[in-house]
Write a structure and sequence with these properties.
With about 725 residues, the chain is α+β, with helices and mostly antiparallel strands. Among the domains are: about 1-40, no CATH class; about 100-290, Orthogonal Bundle (Transferase(Phosphotransferase), domain 1), CATH 1.10.510; about 415-520. The protein is built from eleven helices and 42 strands. The chain has a six-stranded antiparallel β-sheet with strand order 1-2-3-4-6-5, covered by helices on one side. Strands 11-31-30-29 form a four-stranded antiparallel β-sheet. Strands 12-42-41-40 form a four-stranded antiparallel β-sheet, with no helix packed on it.
Length: about 725
């Protein structure tokens, strides 16, 4: 998706009229632009504040030279450049397609034939680059664009000539740790053989969805790259020999790019690249092509005078662990220029921008209730669940069916713990109650009376009498649960095929056993992974992990922030998991590293001394919304972390940071100490407040309803 231009972005660069943002990083910004004749291009610029740095200007010139060498067949064709301009810029072909990591996220791991064709084309492109005595040094999935005509290598920001004197200090490890070569990780010379090593890592990712050395902290990755054997689990057997050879620790043992291309092509023969791509990837390519010709988003107005729209790369005072995560490990051992590549060629990594401010919002009367239902709300996990023509509502010691039009109860099921039930948006599922003993069983509840039918699956390997067994979610006839083994105390994440009535896989997980709590806060499927929130029962810190849907293998795990009250809904999209605490944080779904941080050292008003400054987030249409201190709602671009807007004119309120906002077409709704506040999305000002002590808000966009839950009652308001 394209992101709106900011108020201070230039209107043109050289002869190119800017239309939208494609992405922005610590070093520069990438724009979508057009010529007077209608040609669409991507324009990269170096931030003006960095233009006096001669080393960065030299890197910019090197990037332009390397891009010209690789040409338009294997890279983004260079149309024009002016490295000596006050704000250096480079205009290239706008590549119609997603980066490889996005393609895998959308369509899953690529089939072996597609990976062979992909690898052969990339090897040919690298061979062309190496023929000019240059090396890439930062080949990774996000630097490979997938188009219908074939892959293209981009981002030559840290490329350099073989044997050239480095522009950073000797011994610096420059690049991206997960896809570095061992010699690069050691700070030694990275030759063409190093690019072959990185290419093999890219191909492992393409065919399995994970890199050859896993994920985690940059220092751990650097160690595994240098000393550990690659993880080739999931790689088709016919590809293991050639990829193993490419991943040899000794550069002399690796094949040349020409040898690699020949070996890969021998397995499939000539193919058009589009013929071997999954349909989902082809649809994504078409969607991105269509987006280019849509009306670009309106330029954003200036932010309020008291705010500074700063996304956080690494800043002084930030912990080393956080700094390394933000830069993807690119700035290691004092290298301040790399950041995983000077340039982030981000494709369409924008979000939906704000709208023009057209003056103060008129105060309007708060809406009347559509209905009220006198059912108790549990202290936690009380979210209203959408289930086809009805609602499933945790209500004290039961799960209650509610008619969304009238609020009348339609059924009750004896499910005491809300973590033992789930919906797929249409049907309601639950685990057999623990006091019935026997095997763990998954039921489908009858939509008319809430009674369970015949078990869809029974799992004798797990303890049916364990009250903390948890049904995380149900997606496409697959249920995902966490259950304790029938013998011993080991806990497992379990995938179940409900249609076939059998277990698909299990994966061991750690689970707290010191008190009566479910093992996970929540879980949700995103792309080819299931994301888990897990809480430390004493510290209330939140750990986030990802497991592969294919086999349950853990792909990554990271420690998150601490909360006084743990958030229940998992807020995520295909790129990021979003968390609010001292800052608003976006963690990458692909590997768990930090995509961006927002809010470090911002003025958040009178709550600056409190532990939690940013509330639980909500996500809609490419924008993340949450409370910021006691200043009001803040809206942030989901792709880049840049500020879209901040609520205006709010004073004298204590904001609820535990309950995420709800976003409608006209208003964003948020709780504070005076009730439910509706903020006009056009003017960014509150227009009404509904007095309530609610602790849960749930949106029903299909019916235009906002469900509000207090301790002793639930009611519905119109969702505007």
């Amino acid at each position: 998706m394209l992101s709106a231009l900011l108020h201070d972005d230039p209107h043109s660069v050289g002869p190119y009229r800017l239309l939208a943002r494609l992405g922005s990083g610590g070093m520069g910004t990438v724009y979508l632009a057009r010529t007077a004749g209608g040609r669409t291009v991507a324009v990269k610029t170096l931030h003006a504040r960095l233009s006096s740095d001669t080393a960065l200007r030299s890197r910019f010139q090197l990037e332009a030279d390397a891009a010209r060498v690789i040409g338009g067949r294997h890279g983004a064709a260079v149309h024009d450049a002016d490295p000596s301009a006050p704000m250096p810029w480079l205009a290239t072909e706008y590549v119609l397609g997603p980066p490889l990591d996005d393609a895998v996220s959308v369509g899953g791991a690529l089939p072996a034939a597609a990976v062979r064709v992909l690898g052969a084309a990339l090897a040919e492109g690298l061979e062309q680059l190496h023929g000019s005595e240059a090396v890439h040094r930062d080949l990774k999935p996000s630097n490979v664009m997938v188009t219908a005509a074939g892959p293209k290598i981009i981002d030559f920001g840290i490329a350099r000539a073989v044997g050239e004197v480095p522009l950073t200090h000797v011994g610096d490890a420059v690049g991206t740790p997960a896809f570095m070569s061992p010699e690069q990780a050691a700070g030694l010379e990275h030759t063409a053989a190093g690019d072959v090593f990185a290419l093999a890592g890219v191909l492992v990712f393409a065919v399995t969805g994970h890199g050859p050395f896993g994920s985690g902290q940059p220092t751990d990755l650097l160690y595994r790259v240098r000393y550990a054997e690659p993880d080739l689990g999931g790689v088709p057997p016919e590809l293991v020999p050639v990829l193993s050879r490419c991943l040899s620790k000794n550069p002399a043992d690796r094949p040349t790019t020409a040898e690699l291309a020949k070996t890969l092509v021998e397995g499939v023969g000539p193919h058009r690249f589009a013929d071997v791509l999954p349909d989902a990837v082809l649809r994504e390519i078409a969607r991105r092509g269509d987006d280019v010709w849509r009306q670009p988003p309106h330029r954003l107005p200036p932010p309020p005078p008291e705010t500074v729209p700063d996304t956080v790369p690494a800043r002084p005072g930030m912990s080393r662990r956080r700094m390394l995560a933000v830069t993807g490990g690119g700035a290691l051992a004092g290298a301040g220029l790399a950041g995983g590549g000077v340039w982030a060629w981000l494709g369409s990594r924008g979000g939906t921008g704000g709208t023009d401010d057209e003056g103060p919002a008129k105060k309007v009367k708060a809406p009347s209730r559509l209905w009220t239902s006198l059912i108790r709300c549990p202290e936690s996990r009380g979210e209203v669940r959408l289930a086809g023509h009805g609602l499933a509502v945790p209500a004290g010691i039961v799960l209650s069916g509610i008619n969304p039009e009238s609020g009348e109860a339609t059924w009750q099921a004896n499910i005491a713990d809300p973590w033992r039930s789930a919906t797929d948006g249409t049907k309601v599922y639950a685990l057999r109650e623990h006091d019935e003993g026997g095997k763990v069983a998954v039921w489908e509840l009858d939509p008319t009376d809430g009674q369970p039918g015949k078990p869809l699956v029974e799992l004798s390997a797990f303890a049916g009498d364990e009250p903390r067994n948890q049904l995380l979610c149900v997606v496409k006839d697959s249920a995902y649960l966490v259950a304790r083994a029938a013998s011993g105390k080991r806990w497992y994440l379990v995938a179940v095929d409900l249609r076939a009535g059998r277990e698909r896989w299990r994966s061991p997980v750690e689970a707290a056993t010191d008190r009566y709590e479910p093992p996970m806060v929540s879980g949700a499927v995103e792309g080819d992974r299931i994301l888990l929130y897990q809480a430390d029962s004493f510290m209330h810190s939140l750990d986030v992990s990802a497991h592969a849907l294919a086999d349950g293998k853990k792909r990554w795990s990271n420690s998150g922030p601490s909360y006084e009250k743990l958030p229940s809904p998992l807020v995520h999209d295909e790129r990021h998991v979003y968390l609010g605490d001292k800052v608003l944080e976006a963690g990458k779904v692909s590997d768990g590293s930090i995509g961006w941080l927002f809010g470090d050292r911002r003025n958040v008003g009178g709550s600056a001394g409190e532990a939690r400054l940013y509330g639980s987030p909500a996500l809609r249409d490419g924008v993340v919304y949450c409370t910021e201190g006691d200043r009001g709602i803040v809206a942030v671009d989901a792709a880049t972390g840049s500020l879209n807007w901040l609520e205006k004119g709010l004073t004298g309120r204590r904001l609820n940071r535990d309950v995420p906002p709800v976003v409608g077409e006209k208003y964003v709704y948020s709780l504070d100490d005076k009730g439910l506040r509706a903020v006009d999305l056009r003017t960014r000002r509150a227009v009404w407040t509904y007095e309530t002590t609610a602790t849960v808000l749930t949106a029903d966009h299909g019916r235009g309803r906002l469900y509000v839950r207090e301790e002793r009652q639930t009611f519905a308001l119109p969702l505007a």
